[in-house]
Design a protein that fits this description.
- There is one protein chain.
- By secondary structure, the protein is mainly α.
- 56% of the residues lie in helices and 4% in strands.
- The protein is built from 26 helices and 7 strands.
- A hairpin with a 3-residue loop joins strand 6 and strand 7.
Length: 583
């Protein structure tokens, strides 16, 4: 055994960490990319993807921002860029465009205009996969910078085998891009505060503006970077320096703010109106929350021309949604405003046990490092982690762990700081082997659920109940498995079924012959050939999405549980669609 490795106490990890950083990163990216592609190729469009993709494409080819203002445009624009080469047909119905019916536009764009939906979706998803790969690389680089080669390797393994990242890093949504830009922004601001210089000011401004132009939750970056500045000043005792230092700081801050503002405006084409011809305007008198500090500020910003109308409209729509709440489900309960424990619970049940223990170990190590006077370098990781944690507890929209996706890269970086007990401690030998064992456990747990990362739940959580008894919606069933259902029916030689589908996939496009059962069957407005199901008869094959199975948004929430709850399904498609044969 290598003597240096033996002395250090972690021979396996240290030998791997001693390999060239480029080789380690390439291996991690290869694993992450392969797992993501395996999941992506098997899944049809999820609930939001048609809306986001058609909106991004319309921003590019029409220069019009009327669709989907509740999500800023940057990520959607990037997802739409590959479609410029495909030139997909645009929905021919002018009425849905005039009224900005984004759900109709998205559905028709993918499925009803003769476009190859799978091909359009594949190319539209690739930019999100790029953001996922960039996130893995950023976690590795940041942890390596803070804690050295071993820390970088720990963070790289956790990122490459994180089921939540793997699930959402290939969808046309805004969750992954904001996680990447938030992590890069706080790292850039750390360099700006500690090193200074116009280069870091430029990077920080562009990254902050890009995050703000990607998702409205990125507004939290403003208090985050302000608190980072306060902590940095306290650490450096900058108040005792000469006035020239303060003038430089003011200059850097002003440049950063200007670039962030310009980047946000640039995402909207440097135009206040959504329509380039100014012939179409948003409706402002439809119950938007103009009260409160933020509401009054947005009203002033609209009237004074400080912000694009689409940004103001989207922000107020998100605020209204948050105030009104959204039907949530957890542990067999429903709520219109969610629970303070929802996101902590989601993290606990949808994260591999090995990763959870490593995150806890990283936080415990950080506490001891701070107690010994060696802490402080991680303030730029702790501040966003705390602020996002407070947001998670107070958030009224409890529909998916993806809404707290940015906390995972932060936890991975902190896990890179894990230290062993003192060599004289009785725990040293155990801890020496526990660290690589937990990393291996995290990887094996994640791969055991492949390629159904969207529906991943760790093994201990399954002792509490079945997946659909714990969480649903984008934690489990986002409509992603209609394509896999078709493959199963063909393999089994099953003809017509009775279907209750939760999602925005197209049974016509995937040639799923069926009768419709009650559920969120949005496609029935467009595909009228599928008739309502008659009474169940012995031998009928019934497929029910998990979200419908527990009664989400159904007039009779218990209808499927009463009829099929005690039966064993003949198949579970992608862990999200239950298939039964009526006895």
């Amino acid at each position: 055994m290598n003597a240096a490795a033996e002395v250090d106490g972690l021979s396996v990890l240290d030998r791997i960490a001693a390999r060239p950083a480029g080789v380690q990163l390439a291996a991690g990216l290869l694993v992450f990319g392969a797992c993501s592609l395996a999941a992506m190729l098997g899944e049809n469009a999820t609930f939001d993807e048609g809306i986001h993709l058609s909106a991004g494409y319309s921003y590019l080819v029409r220069g019009d921002y009327r669709l989907n203002p509740e999500h800023p445009p940057l990520g959607k624009i990037l997802n739409g860029i590959p479609l410029l080469a495909l030139k997909p047909a645009w929905p021919a119905d002018p009425e849905i465009w005039r009224k900005a019916w984004q759900g109709d536009v998205g559905y028709k764009f993918l499925f009803l205009e003769g476009n190859d939906a799978d091909r359009v979706l594949f190319w539209g998803r690739l930019p999100t996969l790029f953001w996922g790969l960039l996130l893995v690389g950023s976690v590795f680089a940041l942890a390596r910078d803070l804690y050295g080669p071993r820390g970088g390797l720990i963070a790289l393994v956790l990122a490459s085998f994180c089921p939540t990242l793997l699930a959402h890093s290939h969808y046309v949504t805004t969750d992954t891009i904001v996680a990447v830009l938030l992590l890069l922004a706080v790292a850039s601001f750390r360099s700006l505060y500690e090193v200074g210089g116009y280069r870091w000011s430029v990077y920080s401004g562009i990254l902050l503006g890009g995050a703000l132009a990607s998702k409205f939750s990125a507004i939290l970056l403003v208090p985050i970077v302000l608190w980072m500045g306060v902590v940095s000043l306290y650490k450096s005792r900058a108040w005792s320096r000469d006035p020239g230092t303060w003038l430089r700081r003011l200059t850097y801050g002003s440049l950063t703010a200007v670039l962030a503002f310009a980047t946000l405006w640039g995402a909207y084409g440097f135009r206040q109106q959504p329509d380039p011809d100014r012939a179409w305007q948003f409706e402002w008198n439809d119950g938007l929350p103009w009260t409160g500090v933020s509401g009054r500020f947005m009203e002033k910003a609209r009237d004074a021309g400080w912000l694009p109308h689409a940004y103001i409209r989207g922000y107020l729509m998100v605020q209204k949604h948050s105030q009104e709440g959204h039907q949530a489900y957890a542990l067999r309960r429903f709520s219109d405003v969610g629970w303070s424990w929802y996101f902590p619970f989601a993290v606990m049940v949808k994260t591999p046990v090995g990763a959870l223990l490593l995150y806890a170990w990283g936080l415990w190590t950080l506490r001891h490092r701070a107690r010994d006077g060696r802490g402080g370098a991680e303030y730029f990781i702790l501040i966003p982690l705390i602020i996002y944690g407070v947001l998670a507890v107070r958030n009224n929209i409890n529909i998916g762990i993806r809404h707290v996706l940015p906390i995972f890269p932060l936890l991975m970086v902190l896990a890179g700081g894990i230290e062993l007990p003192d060599r004289a401690s009785a725990l040293f030998r155990r801890a020496r082997w526990a660290l690589p064992a937990l990393l291996l456990l995290a990887a094996v747990e994640t791969l055991s659920g492949a390629p159904y990362f969207q529906a991943y739940f760790n093994a201990p959580s399954r002792l509490l109940g079945e997946r659909h008894e714990l969480l649903i919606d984008s934690n489990l069933d986002w409509g992603q498995d209609l394509k896999r259902l078709k493959r199963y029916l063909d393999d089994q030689g099953i003809g017509e079924i009775k279907l209750s589908y939760f999602g925005l996939g197209s049974p016509r496009y995937y040639q799923v012959p069926h009768q419709t059962l009650p559920g969120t069957n949005a496609y029935t407005r467009f595909e009228t050939e599928f008739k309502p199901a008659d009474a169940f008869k012995p031998g009928d094959v019934v497929a029910i999405s998990a979200s419908n199975f527990v009664g989400l948004r159904l007039d009779d929430p218990g209808m499927y549980l009463r009829r099929f709850g005690k039966l064993k399904p003949i198949a579970v498609i992608g862990n999200s669609i239950y298939v039964y044969r009526v006895p």
